[in-house]
Amino acid sequence: MSAKKLYVIGNSHMDPIWLWRLREGRSTWLNTCRSVVRMMKKYPFLKFCRSSSACYEWIEKCDPALFGEIRQLVEEGRWELVGGWVEQSDTIITSGEILLRQAEYGKRYFREKFGRDVRIGYSVDAFGQNAGLPKLLKTGGFDRYVFMRPMEHEKSMPDLFRWRGDDGSLVTAFRIKQAYCTMPDWTKKEQLFDWIDRLLETGAEYQTFFFGIGDHGGGFFERQIEWLLEAARTRPLEFSTLSHYFDVIEKTELPVVEGELTHHSPGCYSAVGSIKRDLAATERNLLKAEKILLEAPGPDGDADRARLDAAWNRYLFNYFHDIYPGTSIRAAYEQEVRDLTGAANLAATDILEKRLARYGATVKSDFLTEGGVLLWNPLPRPVRAVMSFDTWPDPNKNGRDFNVLRDAAGNMVPLEWLRAAASFGPFGTWGRATAVVDLPASGLRVFAWSYGDAAGKKLGFDRQRAALERFTFPVLADPYDTWGHGAPRLGDTVGSAELTACDEMADGAVASWLRAAYRWKNSTFKLDLIAYAGIPELFIRWSADWREPDETVKISLRTGIPSGTIVSGQALAVLKRRPDENEQPFIDWVVAADKTGTAGFIAGSLHGYDSFGSGELRLTLNRPVHYAEHAPNPPHGDEGYADLGEVIREFWFSAGRPAEELPAIAQERLMEAERFEITAASDGNALYRPEWKIEPPELPVTAQRGGAFRLWNPANRPRGFRLFRDGVEQASGELFPNEVREVVLEQE
Asked: Where do the H-state alpha helices sit in 21-77?
């Protein structure tokens, strides 16, 4: 059908970091918006949309006059606020909690500074759309969404549709045709007219034409404005806002689309693995700091809450779609991204450790004769936690190492000493204190270093050796650029690393540690498999000296499930896929599953896998690629490779667990208990610390702060819940299938 109207959307895509540093990105924000304001003054019919609270916040701080002019244009309805996030985030491998925080912090800014609620989600340059996104958009207060990828040649689907989430949420979505800005080769009027005519001839009845210069900003070319005015005399063009366009299309019948929208850039799932590791760790620390502030605010609680709030706001910037997917230049990662992440992590750990220390000063500790350790469970359900850190086995030179942890009631927990990070220590004794401890919901336990007979039976290495029999390490010749443009999978398998040694590092009642060594060409790596008492999952540490550029390495698991499905975590969603050999994204966990059980991996900072109908599940461990290499442009090599050299990946091997339990199990394995060494403190007033608990315990609580709990029901059936404080029920209800809900409790 010929298009009845083409809605011209003024836009200037501005990547704050990509092929440039943040300083250049910030200057682009200012210079582009100044240019756009000048043009809008000269051409009163122009309208312009701009996302990202980080951009507006910077303009407000640096050029208040410009900010005032933008506010006036917003009031006039000509400058449109879209996106509602801190930045245009990655939307394929970013966690659901982070995407909800993007909306929380971004929308709060727009409400405070402009008095507007942003309804239009806007992530036009992200490299795919996660299956959980419709639900998260609706939960975050959006009912409209604009994106571009996957593009027409990558996925056959309507350009205009209602996108339905797994909980039934519906958002009106449209996919941009061709580009989110004016194409760079439209330097002649005829080229611009040709593209407009092709859209009118082949496009939908109502569609958009994005007009403006990007990716490094720029605003409008004045001569192109004049060309558009000329085109509008003979063609059905209307200078419009996105809100008006949505008002028009929502009156029409639209098809419904469900599930994930991929497949664009699968190389991004694994590129620059170091930033994925650092951001995952920082996210967990920020969440723990929020929880401990709820439990123990203290006299400086308001100041710490403000510090944590600022840390979140700056940290969320790092999920920009050219940062977290690993597609920016090296200097950006080694400078601004490193600093923004480190500052947020420092704020979180300062708050966390200060309150752990306060607990240590106020809990009952008079039974600590030679010191001890405090353990804190950040989850509102009981957990079996691993404690493992480097310290003194015999600090007082008694001639024997501590071998148990003893609580105030005399209960003992076995203690084992593994090899520490360093081969020496103060006073000649040093080791890795390791114990497995049952912790109550939101609970503290205090233990004295002690001696006793609680050793128990050694674990042995049967579990590790059985796992090794199921693991291989295929290597792929990966010819693709950083993004993996045009890659259904990351290359052909050219071989498998050779097992060269297998050593029994430690065997005790708490842990057993088996180390396997491998070689591939000029590269070597060690695979540490650690079994912990009473924990079904095996901890895996893969430490490599990887010397093969453009060769991707995976760990392949023979699942024993040849005809099952692949079930994986998404952004607060669970997705089932058929094995198809393509590189696929996941968040936190991925398993092969059938009626008999599951087998797979729990990994907080690895996001790519492929699978085969023979029952092989392959987790991508390391993808050494040039920084910001974009086909068909050959890299000149000045910036070198990411993830080449010494690389460490840590994750868990899981087998036998029901798929429905894996969201909670993954949370327990990844959201580790915290510890703090203490000595007997002076008698003082005990610090009141409420103990929160969720029932049923397998229901994930993704965030807990300020009396608010974010609950997620990952099951396809309704589930009741009850929230307790100090054993007294505070809230109850029923969660719909796959629902995400924030439950706010009254404050005492």
From this structure: 22-42, 53-62, 64-75
